[in-house]
Design a protein that fits this description.
single chain; mainly alpha
């Protein structure tokens, strides 16, 4: 509580009296308070910078010293608050970037899985929609157009072009084609040709039997005719 023009002995250490203006003012009034009319001594200046008491300052100077000290405190608090806010913002941005990266990775994985599932479903649907070799009437001979029509019915639209590309390169759709040097036989140049007997005893004369064998081979070894064709393009064999 104020008593006359003086106040209780409150230390101004907490008000940052170390500022140039405040120290000057404190040094001046210290001499007055002690009864000295000379310049403040070095000991007095040291005391003022460390433990000068607000009660030792004339009432007219107290508001100025308090205002300067509080302004410095407010500035320091503002700087600290800005630094804290910046640090919080950077941390929040880092966490958000990490979360976004994880979300993108999961989205990419899901898209890849969905694409594989769709492809598998399409291939399965294509196989399910095909005709069996035994559903075609047996003939003494077959034209290329007839053999290709069989293949379209057995392979399905989604895989037919890849299937056709392989047959074009292997035998040009000649179901009786024989490789003179190796003995490879038929539409797919199976070696030996007799391995096609696994799907029918008439493998030498029935293109439908050969198509069934070739389709089974491509599906089991490569997953589909189109995957078999990709391998063929890279290696010139399958």
């Amino acid at each position: 509580m104020l008593e006359g023009n003086r106040v209780s002995r409150i230390s101004v250490r907490g008000f940052a009296v170390a500022s140039a203006t405040a120290v000057t003012a404190v040094g001046a009034v210290t001499g007055v308070a002690s009864g000295s009319t000379g310049q403040p001594s070095s000991d007095a200046e040291a005391t003022a910078s460390e433990t000068t008491l607000l009660a030792d300052i004339p009432a007219g100077q107290q508001a100025q010293v308090q205002t300067a000290s509080l302004t410095q405190q407010a500035d320091a608090q503002a700087i600290a608050a800005d630094a804290s806010a910046k640090k919080d913002a950077e941390e929040a941005a880092r966490k958000q970037a990490a979360a976004d990266a994880v979300a993108k990775q999961k989205a990419a994985q899901k898209a890849e899985e969905d694409a594989k599932a769709r492809k598998a479903a399409e291939e399965k649907a294509s196989r399910d929609a095909t005709r069996d070799a035994s559903s075609f009437p047996v003939q003494g001979s077959y034209t290329v157009a007839q053999i290709q029509a069989m293949a379209r019915s057995m392979v399905g639209a989604g895989q037919f072009q890849c299937f056709s590309n392989i047959v074009d390169h292997e035998s040009s759709w000649n179901y009786r084609a024989v490789n003179a040097s190796s003995g490879a036989y038929g539409l797919f140049q199976a070696l030996p040709g007799s391995k096609m007997s696994s799907v029918g005893a008439d493998w030498q004369t029935n293109p439908a039997t050969q198509i069934k064998w070739g389709l089974n081979y491509m599906n089991s070894r490569y997953g589909s005719p189109c995957q078999a064709w990709s391998f063929w393009q890279a290696n010139s064999w399958y």
